[in-house]
């Protein structure tokens, strides 16, 4: 039975794909858009107005690196004037002195800062940016001086999973209210780099224990959110809270998508803001309606008691691994191809072993860059 269509609550605005960092775990598409494809200031302001009219309460300003948009203060001010909560998702390098304060004055509500390693060498290696760690710490301090709440986002994979205890101490020392220990989701560049990024099971289990203990110890001091690693899970996550259920995203060129990897589902067509209104896209777009609710589900999801808990998991992961966006997310133990997740982990471990045995000196990653790289077939 379909539930009535409600207005969206959240919107992720990818203002640009440009970024000074080149993280191999980036969830941006492998075909990154250049600056000349980005919406102009007025189009973003119109889009934000329509989002507020539609009922959106929170906008996450992301990228790429959103502070590369010189009109960011204008966007924050526009959203703030409409009473929309704004969260800046930044890599925290190359931000000019005074910019964080200016954004706070424009009405910014919150900053989420990503840090690639608890150690400087890890941050620099993963982000492929010398001196990046110090710059990030300085950005964190400026956020706190500006009186803004701070979340530290730590994307976790094989090359930093042992640093989780240090991430916790680092976030505390920076005065963060929240730390996200976010195991990498394998889409976009992360899917290209899956073998190089996949952790082993023992490290994942140690990490789960460390996080659980810290959550207990730091209750009331700092919240720790844990984004579980799908490839080691029993049940999938409710990706995006369910397809086109209460949130959506907009790409730098104004393409409106139910999630950041939806473009990998080639059978769907996504509309651009300007050609149609946001309300029309949210309500009537065939792509948004394709996996809404539960009517589209096949077995085992169709008759599963969890179907309105996880909404069948992630459509893009089903596409990437099962080759069918309407399949049960293979992260689910009930999926007929759940064992494939374990096999992909085993493949990644074999690749890691071969790399160590060969004493590889070159980085195992394909660093994110603005060019075309094809995503691997699973
Ligand atoms: Fe979720 Fe489908 Fe698995 Fe049930 S079968 S737990 S609805 S993914
Ligand atoms: Fe698209 Fe999960 S990333 S539904």
TrEMBL record:
Keywords: 4Fe-4S, Iron, Iron-sulfur, Metal-binding, Oxidoreductase, PQQ biosynthesis, S-adenosyl-L-methionine. InterPro entries: 4Fe4S-binding_SPASM_dom, AdoMet-like_SPASM_containing, Aldolase_TIM, Elp3/MiaA/NifB-like_rSAM, MoaA_NifB_PqqE_Fe-S-bd_CS, PQQ_synth_PqqE_bac, PqqE-like, Radical_SAM_PqqE_MftC-like. Binds 1 [4Fe-4S] cluster. The cluster is coordinated with 3 cysteines and an exchangeable S-adenosyl-L-methionine. It is an enzyme of class 1 (oxidoreductase). SMART domains: Elp3. Catalyzes the cross-linking of a glutamate residue and a tyrosine residue in the PqqA protein as part of the biosynthesis of pyrroloquinoline quinone (PQQ). NCBIfam families: PQQ_syn_pqqE, rSAM_more_4Fe4S. Interacts with PqqD. The interaction is necessary for activity of PqqE. This is PqqA peptide cyclase. The gene is pqqE.
